[in-house]
Amino acid sequence: MSFKWQFRGKDVTGPSWREMVNEACTIMNYPEPDLLRMRGSDLQILEYFGLTMGSFSPLTNWLVRRMDPSDRELSQSHLHQVLADLDRCNLFYTTNYDDFIERALKLKGRTVQAITSEREMVSGPKVSQVVKYHGDFNRPEEMVFSERHYYRRMRFECPLDWKLRSDLLNRVLLFVGYSFNDMNVALLFELINATLNTLPDSTSGKRAYIISHNPSDFECKLFERRNVTVIPTYGNDRTAATANVLMEMCS
C-alpha cells in the first residue's frame, strides 16, 4: 500500500506506508525499525503497535497532522483536480483514510457523500459517492492498520463489500495507484475477476482497467489473467503521467 499525502510542488503527496510503520516504531521507542522487520512484516509490526500502545490513536493523530492541506493547496494538486473533473464519474472507491477526494470534488461545486458504513449509502442521483474502503478518521474503529484488520477486511462480508458487488453491475472500473504489492487489493482483483467472469453481457465490452506506470510484461500478464486491461504510462513522473490519462478521459 502507498499513500499520496504531504506537499510536493503542486501535488498533494505524503508519507509512504513504510514511513508510517517507521513512525509507529518511533512512538514505541524502537529506533531501528528494520530490526523489527527481520522478525515480522509491517502489518505484524502494526499489530504489535496496537497491543503495546492499547490503541492506534497515537499513530492516527500523527497521520492527521500530516494530512491537513489548505483548500488552496488542495486546489493546486493536479491529480486531485483532474479526478474532480471526471464529471461522468460519480463513484469513487479509495483505501486512503484522508478526505482529499471529497474536498477536491466539493471545490469543484459537486455534492459529495463519504461512505464508510451502511447508514451513509442512501444518496440522491446527482451526489458523488466516495467509498472509504479502509475507513477514515471519522470512523477510526473501521480503519485498517494491522494484520488482524486486514484478515477481517478480506472476508469481504461487510456492507461495503455488498455495495461493491452491486456497483460492479454494468459499470467499468478503473484502478488508479494500485498494484499486487497490496495483498488486500490483490485479493480484490481475484474477487472482481471471479464476479465479472459470470457477467458476460457488459454493454462496454470491458469491465476493468488499471493505470500502470512503466509496466513490465510480468505485470501485464498477471493483470490480463484477471481480465484487467492495462493502460500503460511511461516516464519519470508517475503522478503527472496518471493525471494525463485522466485528463484525456475528461475531454
Which terms summarize this structure?
44% helix, disordered N terminus, 12 helices, alpha/beta, 251 residues, globular
Description:
By secondary structure, the protein is α/β, with parallel strands linked by helices. It is 44% helix and 13% strand. It contains twelve helices and eight strands. The protein has a three-stranded parallel sheet, covered by helices on one side. A three-stranded parallel sheet has the order 6-7-8. It is globular, with a radius of gyration of 18 Å. It starts with 6 loop residues before the first strand and ends with a helix. 27% of the residues are buried. Mean pLDDT is 84; it is low at 1-10.
Proportion of residues in helical segments:
40-55%
Mean pLDDT over the full residue set: 84
| Strand order across the largest sheet | 3-5-4
Q: Structural class, judged by helices and strands? A: alpha/beta
Short description:
By secondary structure, this protein is of the alpha/beta class. The chain contains 12 helices and 8 strands.
Write the topology of this structure.
Layout lengths: L6 E2 L2 E2 L4 H11 L5 H5 L4 H12 L3 H10 L4 H5 L2 H7 L6 E4 L5 H8 L4 E4 L12 E5 L14 H7 L5 H9 L5 E4 L6 H14 L11 E6 L3 H9 L3 E5 L4 H13 L1
Parallel strand pairs: 3-5, 4-5, 6-7, 7-8
Antiparallel strand pairs: 1-2
